[in-house]
Specification:
The chain is α+β, with helices and mostly antiparallel strands. It has a domain of 166 residues: 2-Layer Sandwich (Beta-Lactamase), CATH 3.30.450. It is built from 13 helices and 13 strands.
Length: 515
């Protein structure tokens, strides 16, 4: 017997209960699965959007910081570009003074650095030196005029300046403020970067790469410009050394997320500051392109040529000299900005690199992912609990109402059986028995005997009518009997097959013809 037949053999009440329970279970399961997949889809969408939002937010903050710092440093260097042009104008006016000028007569004359003690710094005036033991007449005339600048230098000096100086072709004279003694007596200004850069860029302020000031050891940038005579011929240059520390300290205040930072890099790739977490002892001569930082020289050239706000990635490895046997690699996302302090804004002097540790970005995304996962679990279990609660309520209600339904179906079944029994197999005498009546027939023996005969006659007529006398009013009872034995009786011609009410009622309707 198949599963379908087994189900059909159950009572109608039990079939109804099973159908409702299975339908409820299927509905609850469908709701749970839909909720799960919808939450899973929503989680993926939220994580993807969170990653985009976090990256967009971090990049936006980095761009704002990069733009602000680029503007600040550009303005800072602009000041000294203008400063050096003003210094040139003053120098030019002073050096064009007539030899008989009253100003020259009013000053005490130039001070040679050799008159000072080693290590002495004089802020009242400047000093000059030449590697030649004796100045020419042109040199003496030039230095007498240059001495006038000693009256002006103190008012031009500020806390960001290390020294103000000038150098000349004549006798390779160097004039410097504050006044110091130059220990290297072979010192010549014309061999220094600030001088030959000015010589190569006539009339344009130039800036050197970061370097140690050779006289006091400060980490400085030099800004200089050439001096020309009336015929446009170079005869000297003026310059100023600017402290890098104010720039570096300002940059060190910033932190992108937890360990991100801002780098200031010169055009040649020299780093003007270093993040604390990199922990290098000597960074002043460190290039941005090296194996430890993870940028090659070719990559640096490519980065310089990209447009501002360009994003690039590099993998920094900790210095193995400091952290032995450490191969930890940190991935940084960086945005580049260009510093152009020149008035024409064509030439770049420095680059701002805003860096963020990508792991910290992913940690934020992981935090969002973890938070949503917790929410996902809570929502899923709430839906699961609700579905199970509804399912249990349905089962309980079916069990509670089952008894009432069972009684109702039992009554209906009895009624239908009675209808079928009376309609198909009429037998009015089958319940009549004379055994008890005969045992107590004293005095009414004739009546009992007459009744028994009468019942026998009725029974004979019933039997005769059932089998032989239906004629045209109904089909032959043998045919009806054979048809109904296939479906009504528990044990019928098809084997052990219980009656199916649907078939029974349909056949009952079929044979229910008017006589």
């Amino acid at each position: 017997m198949g599963l379908r037949d087994k189900f059909s053999s159950l009572t109608l009440e039990l079939q109804l209960q099973i159908s409702i329970i299975l339908s409820s279970a299927l509905l609850c399961t469908t709701i749970i699965l839909i909720t799960y997949y919808q939450l899973n889809w929503l989680r993926n969408e939220v994580i993807d959007e969170s990653e985009k939002t976090v990256l967009k937010g971090v990049y936006a903050d980095m761009e704002k910081l990069g733009e602000a710092e680029t503007l600040r440093i550009t303005e800072f260097l602009d000041v000294y570009m203008i400063y050096i042009e003003n210094l040139k104008a003053i120098e030019t006016k002073v050096l064009q003074l007539d030899g008989s000028s009253q100003i020259l007569e009013a000053i005490n004359g130039p001070i040679q650095d050799a008159t000072l003690e080693s290590g002495t710094v004089i802020y009242d005036y400047g000093t000059f030196m030449s590697k030649f033991t004796k100045l020419s007449s042109s040199g003496i005339d030039l230095e007498n005029k240059q001495a006038i600048m000693d009256l002006i230098f103190p008012s031009l000096y500020n806390e960001n300046i290390v020294s103000i100086y000038s150098g000349f072709e004549i006798n390779e004279i160097s004039h410097r403020y504050p006044g110091i003694k130059i220990e290297d007596r072979t010192y010549s200004p014309i061999t220094r970067e600030w001088y030959y850069k000015a010589q190569d860029n006539i009339g344009i302020p130039v800036m050197t790469e970061p370097h140690f000031d050779e006289f006091d050891g400060s980490w400085v940038l030099s800004v200089s410009i050439s001096l020309l005579d009336g015929k446009g011929k170079l005869y000297g240059a003026v310059g100023v050394d600017i402290l890098i520390d104010p720039l570096a300290k300002e940059l060190s205040r910033y932190s992108i997320l937890d360990t991100g930072f801002v780098l200031l890099i010169s055009e040649a790739g020299n780093m003007l500051n270093i993040p604390e977490q990199w922990n290098y002892d000597e960074f002043y001569e460190m290039k941005i392109y090296n194996e430890t930082i993870g940028i090659t020289e070719l990559q640096w050239d490519t980065i310089k040529n990209t447009s501002d706000k360009s994003i690039f990635i590099f993998n920094h490895t900790y210095d193995t000299k400091i952290l032995e046997n450490n191969n930890n690699i940190t991935t940084y996302h960086a945005i580049k900005y260009t510093v152009r302090p020149y008035s024409d804004r064509d030439n770049a002097t420095h680059y701002i690199i805003v860096c963020v540790n990508y792991t910290e970005i992913t940690e934020q995304i992981d935090t969002v992912r973890e938070s949503f996962h917790k929410t996902f679990v809570v929502i899923f279990y709430v839906v699961l609990a609700f579905a199970l609660f509804v399912f249990i309520i349905i089962v309980v209600l079916l069990r509670i109402t089952g008894k009432k339904i069972r009684k109702q179906f039992s009554q209906i079944e009895k009624i239908f059986m009675s209808i079928i029994d009376r309609g198909l197999l009429p037998d009015m005498t089958r319940e009549v028995s004379f055994f008890k009546l005969k045992d107590n027939d004293k005095g009414i023996e004739t009546l009992v005997s007459a009744c028994e005969k009468k019942v026998k006659m009725l029974k004979e007529k019933e039997d005769c009518f059932s089998y032989f006398d239906w004629k045209d009013c109904r089909p032959n009872d043998c045919l009806i009997y054979s048809a109904w034995t296939d479906v009504i009786f528990p044990f019928n011609s098809y084997g052990e097959k219980k009656a199916m009410w649907k078939s029974v009622l349909l056949k009952l309707e079929k044979y229910d013809k008017k006589i």
